[in-house]
């Protein structure tokens, strides 16, 4: 039997609301035995998480979630690659993430400008503080800036937008008015960066980003050819058909199958609980991540 695991979580180092140590403490309270702190494009909280894991008896997998451009798709799109068991103390991943983070910040600021173009005011205090502190900024921070600006209140009520998630879905995902695509890294570059840092590369939450099953499978095949090591088959929003489709193809390709509830904080409407995903009776294949 694998340990009780949850292989995605986020702290204030990216778009979560708790410190890395508090994320680990919450996970321990929930009974998690194997946890990954996988902040977006940063490993800044990993050392803190590892120390907290030793205190609470939780094994911490050093991890990162890299936003990457799928340049091989018919229409370029953004996907996420999880890197597990990376050398978070070495220079290889630090250098790569510095480059990726710079592009993430530029893309976020392009989306900020686009939100202004569609008529929103923004309260940018938090964004400016994070930039000054060298912390990542992303869509949740833009959404918060829109929600906090009093001048937007009436418009947001009329559009039925009342939290960060609904603002992102309304304006900051592909096909919406203020979305802007990243320029780097590509999926191949993200996989290579994880491998260069001694880690295992896993495609995160496929059906969160792609709807059609055939397209998900075709993408997984392409990523396998690029050297991907696994897929996040078990995920809080994946239903049984989606999960079985992924685990079956992963078995055919010899890929790992991981899972998470993608914890962002106790007040998050969707991503607020640990291990809130279903394996549907299927055994995960965590490989070296669990060792």
CATH architecture of the largest domain: Alpha-Beta Barrel
CATH topology descriptor of the largest domain: TIM Barrel
- Termini gap: 12 Å
Order of helices and strands: EHEHEEHHHHHHEHHEHE
* CATH H level, superfamily name of the largest domain: Metal-dependent hydrolases
Strand content: 5-15%
CA-based gyration radius:
18 Å
| Spans of at least 5 consecutive residues with low confidence | none
Structure summary, number of beta strands: 7
How many structural domains? 2
**Which CATH class of the largest domain?**
Alpha Beta
Walk me through this protein's architecture:
This protein folds into two domains: 5-104 and 194-290, Metal-dependent hydrolases (TIM Barrel); 106-171, no CATH class. 42% of the residues lie in helices and 14% in strands. The chain has helices spanning 20-29, 46-56, 91-117, 125-132, 139-148, 153-158, 164-171, 187-196, 206-209, 213-226, 240-253; strands at residues 5-6, 34-37, 59-70, 77-84, 200-203, 230-235, 256-260. Strands 1-2-3-4-5-6-7 form a seven-stranded mixed β-sheet. The model has no long low-confidence stretch (mean pLDDT 96).
Question: What's the helix and strand layout?
Answer:
Elements: E1 5-6, H1 20-29, E2 34-37, H2 46-56, E3 59-70, E4 77-84, H3 91-117, H4 125-132, H5 139-148, H6 153-158, H7 164-171, H8 187-196, E5 200-203, H9 206-209, H10 213-226, E6 230-235, H11 240-253, E7 256-260
Parallel strand pairs: 1-2, 2-3, 5-6, 6-7
Antiparallel strand pairs: 3-4, 4-5
């Amino acid at each position: 039997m694998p340990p009780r695991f949850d292989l995605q979580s986020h702290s204030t180092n990216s778009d979560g609301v708790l410190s890395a140590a508090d994320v680990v403490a919450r996970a321990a309270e929930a009974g998690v035995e194997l946890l990954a702190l996988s902040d977006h494009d940063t490993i800044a909280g990993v050392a803190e998480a590892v120390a907290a894991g030793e205190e609470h008896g939780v094994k911490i997998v050093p991890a990162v979630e890299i936003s990457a451009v799928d340049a091989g798709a018919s229409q370029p799109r953004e996907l996420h690659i999880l890197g597990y068991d990376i050398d978070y103390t070495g220079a290889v991943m630090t250098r790569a993430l510095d480059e990726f983070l710079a592009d993430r910040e530029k893309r976020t600021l392009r989306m900020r400008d686009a939100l202004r173009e569609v008529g929103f005011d923004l309260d940018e205090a938090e964004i400016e503080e994070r930039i000054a502190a060298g912390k990542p900024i992303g869509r949740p921070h833009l959404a918060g800036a829109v929600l906090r600006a009093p001048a937007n209140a009436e418009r947001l009520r009329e559009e039925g937008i009342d939290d960060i998630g609904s603002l992102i879905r309304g304006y900051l995902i592909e096909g919406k008015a203020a979305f802007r695509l990243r320029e780097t890294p590509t999926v191949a570059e993200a996989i290579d960066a994880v491998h260069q840092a001694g880690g295992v590369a896993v495609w995160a939450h496929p059906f969160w980003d792609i709807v059609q099953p055939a397209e998900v499978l075709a993408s997984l095949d392409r990523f396998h050819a690029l050297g991907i090591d696994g897929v996040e088959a078990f995920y809080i929003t994946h239903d049984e058909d989606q999960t079985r489709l992924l685990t079956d193809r992963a078995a055919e390709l010899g890929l790992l199958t991981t899972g998470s509830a993608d914890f962002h904080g106790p007040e998050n409407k969707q991503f607020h609980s640990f291990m809130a995903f279903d394996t549907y009776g299927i055994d995960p294949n965590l490989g070296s991540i669990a060792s």
